[in-house]
Amino acid sequence: MTKAVLKVASLGDLHVKEDKTQSLRELFGEISQAADVFVLCGDLTDTGKPKEAEILAEELRACSIPIVGVLGNHDYESEQAEKVADILKSAGVHLLDGQTYEVDGVGFVGVKGFIGGFGRRMLSAFVPQPQGLARFELRAGAAIPGESIWLDLLEPTPSEEKQVESFLSIDVPTRDEMREIEASNRLYEEDGALYMTATVVTKLDSDLPESTQITFILSSSKLVTNRYVDPLPFRRFIAYSERHPASCNTPPAVLAGIVESIINRVADVIERVATDLDAASGEVFSVRTRQRGVLRDFRRVLERLGQNGELISKARESLVSLGRLLTFVQQSTSVATTDEVRGRYRTLSRDVLAMSDHASFLGTKVSFILDATLGLINIDQNNILKIFSVVTVFLLPPSVIGAVYGMNFEHIPGAHDPWGFWAAVGVMIVSAVGPFVFFKRKGWL
């Protein structure tokens, strides 16, 4: 039966963090008593990490009424929105992204909780304004602004690619063409435009980071980016460019800003890996741990080392690609750039070189800790086998004596005497203690 009045409670911008200091369980319980449906309006987690979603999901179990919600931009920040959504759905949240949900005859419809969402299959034009770059999302058939300096193709349709090609008289490579381009042919010049395809690592906060290709087409009047992922550096740069007009007023400057944002993201990951490797090194080589006899979880250490090694490997691949791109731009004379922008390119090149060296060092450190961990595992295994071997040697003489006295012969010395049993036990003890004393004096134990 449909209710005459449906009480709706709404809440947004929860920004739940891993180190939360305040529980929301009591609040959610009060909402369940006062309302008929609970609406969550985006930005439910602080950085979009699954751990944050798990904390929120546990808190939401105190809510006994239907829960409807959408995700916000913060829930996408770590590029693990699907995991976040699955965790929240398991707690009973009906997440909407273009779908509908009905409660007591009242329908709810929702999309990602921020204007425009993370629109897929979208052509965006960025036009210089006094306050910064203004973003215009060009839907099907919309004309490209002539004053735009950056055209961003995100998962473009064939018609959008053709529109850009016709507008700039250039050839935009398709996704398959981007993948098929050999590494040695990813940087070239054609009709006064620079074509540069770089390898960029994405999903850096997940267990499975991925490498993808992003194409930059730079001319004197326009920068075109063609990509099929929406990594965090692009989103950060777009937000930055909307507030800083001086550093994003020409296509070469925009390219420098995007590359700088990607490099900063890789730097964050390298710093995180370095910290994690220090912790793993302390765990493997800790003297206190060995002295206390605490069992160390080497399986977990190996998993961490494997993940860090994969991150460093993909980060180095991305840095090498970006370094080649920066060198190519600086050597080109087709696109006019200011001294300030060229200075930024040189600074970025030095940063890439320094970070590549540091990433190589971390890769060597991963190999060292990995070898040391495997060596300690072998030592532990040898110690276990050593214990079994020593015990076997200690018990072998008593076993032989016991076997002799267990024979069913009529005449066994001492078998029928009152002292026979105790004499056999004494001989067995002496035969076990004797090898122990001998091993101890030799220093084998």
N- to C-terminal separation? 80 Å
Count every helix, treating DSSP H or I runs of 4 or more residues as helices: 11
Structural class: alpha/beta
Strand order of the largest sheet: 8-7-9-13-12-11-10
Helix content: 40-55%
CATH topology of the largest domain: Beta Polymerase, domain 2
The CATH level-2 architecture of the largest domain is identified as 2-Layer Sandwich
Main sheet, how many strands, which sense, barrel? 7 strands, mixed
What does the overall shape look like?
Answer: elongated
- What low-confidence regions span 5 or more consecutive residues with pLDDT below 50? 115-119
Rg, please? 33 Å
Which CATH class of the largest domain applies here? Alpha Beta
Number of strands: 13
Number of domains: 3
CATH homologous superfamily placement of the largest domain: CorA soluble domain-like
Please write the string of helix (H) and strand (E) elements: EHEHEHEEEEEEHHEEEEHHHHHH
